[in-house]
Amino acid sequence: MTLGQQPQSVVIIGGGLSGALVALQLLQERTRPLRLSLVERSHAIGRGVAYSSPLPCHLLNVPVNGVSLRRSEPHHFLHWLHQQGHDQFTAQSFVPRYLFGSYVEATLQAAQQADSLPLDSYEDEAVELVPGSPGVGVRLARGQVLMADRVVLALGNPAPGSVAIANRDFYRSHRYIDSGWSGQLEAVMGQGRLLLLGMGLTAIDWIVALHSRGYGGEIHLLSRHGLLPQPHTAPQDYDPAWWTEPPPHTTLGLLRWVRRQVVWAAQQGYGWRAVLDSLRYRGQALWVRLPLAEKQRFVRHLRPYWDSHRHRIAPEIGEMVTALRRSQQLQLHTGHLINLEERGQGVVVTVCPRGQTTNQEFTVEAVINCTGPQFNYAKLADPLVRSLLSQGLMTPDPLGLGLRASPTGAVYSAEGLVSPWLYTLGPTRRGELWETTAVAEIRDQAEALAQEILGVGVAVAGGAG
Ligand SMILES: Cc1cc2nc3c(=O)[nH]c(=O)nc-3n(C[C@H](O)[C@H](O)[C@H](O)COP(=O)(O)OP(=O)(O)OC[C@H]3O[C@@H](n4cnc5c(N)ncnc54)[C@H](O)[C@@H]3O)c2cc1C
């Protein structure tokens, strides 16, 4: 790889939040000549899956002061909002996600102007990496090849995989929407009964969007555990220093440890949310020290409970969901999906309810897959992912939740070697770090990664398991 006084050439693949933040950090921190390129298959930079929705009803699930792009300036986003005339918002507001996307875009643009360094953006898809000497070629779908010294995989959230059912032909039906993010709201507005597969944040996005458009039909939700995201309440500052007991190394031990802390905190007047929020800052360190078998146990048994309590929703959305449940417009089913079959004007849904052995059936008019990203890279059909895996340039983590990477995000090859030129960050690191998808974590990873690329040492949390 060519370094020294030659401009260092960095290609970032993926222009969602993670890619935009690495670019931002590289621009701000660079101490040497740099050539920076960003490849994003959609037209928008800084938005990705989460911040592309134009709907004002799609709110951030953390308040304004939790998503500043500057760690040292918690009110940076709030100040930006006020500069844009959104004076109604406070540090505790839950604002529309598109506003956060605009903030990311504007902050990146401002950094480019301040640095007078152009960021070469390519609206294209990266399909292959061709390692050479010197440098590596990044081949784009339209045929162009970008040469790089370093490549960052900011690939983000892959589309959901389909749930295993007896009749897989159903997935070709026009009554099935295969990705909860494709936003095909119009297509289902006329339907009387819908089924959303999954009860996480994507399902909540659909419910909110349908409600805001005046949808009056029934919305059925199905998941194995039947857990909806919990709503936020007024924040409480619970001091992490109060965690005096050393954390155990088993999943069951950790569960009991947290429960004891919740009981103790309640006696001091703090709710469980404050306890979980304080735990967040230790989350990566706790995860990294768990043995693999314990991580597998956590994913198998505790993940739905963790997701529901940790990835919460804005209070106003929580109230809306409660009202819809009360009116029976929203109906929850807990169980295992057995089959989906188009019959007449509808879809017959066969479910084995949790804890029972007899299947139940009900009919809906359309089914939307809201099961969340398919993080098992071995199962993805994406051409770049397939090519990187087949060349042995990267390797899935043993939990099937992302990619193996070093503490600074350097990717492991199939032979178990840390790559000197290929990096990743954000949701791809879920298996390694667990807590890696929220804005604050991605911001900190982008900072560490930029310093690694620029050759400035920095201590980071987490590491390869
Ligand atoms: C619906 C939703 C809501 C969320 N809300 C919040 C929230 O309120 N608060 C919070 O803290 N976190 C939230 N998150 C977490 C979220 O994952 C992160 O904040 C962030 O969006 C992850 O950014 P990313 O760039 O890694 O991934 P993505 O947003 O998935 O972006 C990846 C980008 O890479 C591009 N790409 C991938 N492969 C290629 C290729 N080969 N060539 C070219 N381009 C490619 C894709 O087109 C995409 O634009 C939310 C997530 C989702 C899905």
SSE map:
Elements: E1 8-13, H1 17-29, E2 34-40, H2 76-83, H3 97-115, E3 119-123, E4 126-131, E5 136-140, E6 145-148, E7 150-153, E8 176-177, H4 185-189, E9 193-197, H5 201-212, E10 218-223, H6 251-267, H7 272-280, H8 283-288, H9 292-310, H10 315-326, E11 330-343, E12 346-353, E13 360-364, E14 366-369, H11 383-390, E15 410-412, E16 418-424, H12 430-433, H13 439-454
Parallel strand pairs: 1-2, 1-7, 2-3, 7-16, 8-14, 9-10, 9-14, 10-11
Antiparallel strand pairs: 4-5, 5-6, 11-12, 12-13, 15-16
Helix pairs in contact: 1-3, 1-13
Bound molecules: flavin-adenine dinucleotide.
Flavin-adenine dinucleotide binds near residues 16, 40, 125 and 202.
Please provide a written account of the structure:
The strands form 3 sheets. Strands 8-14-9-10-11-12-13 form a 7-stranded mixed sheet. Strands 3-2-1-7-16-15 form a 6-stranded mixed sheet, with helices on one face. The radius of gyration is 23 Å and the shape is globular. The chain is α/β, with parallel strands linked by helices and 465 residues long. The model is unreliable at 457-465 (pLDDT under 50). Helix 1 runs parallel beside helix 3. The chain has 3 domains: 8-58 and 96-158 and 375-454, FAD/NAD(P)-binding domain, CATH 3.50.50.60; 168-230 and 312-369, FAD/NAD(P)-binding domain, CATH 3.50.50; 240-310, no CATH class. It has helices at residues 17-29, 76-83, 97-115, 185-189, 201-212, 251-267, 272-280, 283-288, 292-310, 315-326, 383-390, 430-433, 439-454; strands at 8-13, 34-40, 119-123, 126-131, 136-140, 145-148, 150-153, 176-177, 193-197, 218-223, 330-343, 346-353, 360-364, 366-369, 410-412, 418-424. Helices cover 32% and strands 20% of the residues. It has 13 helices and 16 strands. Bound molecules: flavin-adenine dinucleotide (FAD). Flavin-adenine dinucleotide binds next to helix 1, strand 2, helix 5 and helix 13.
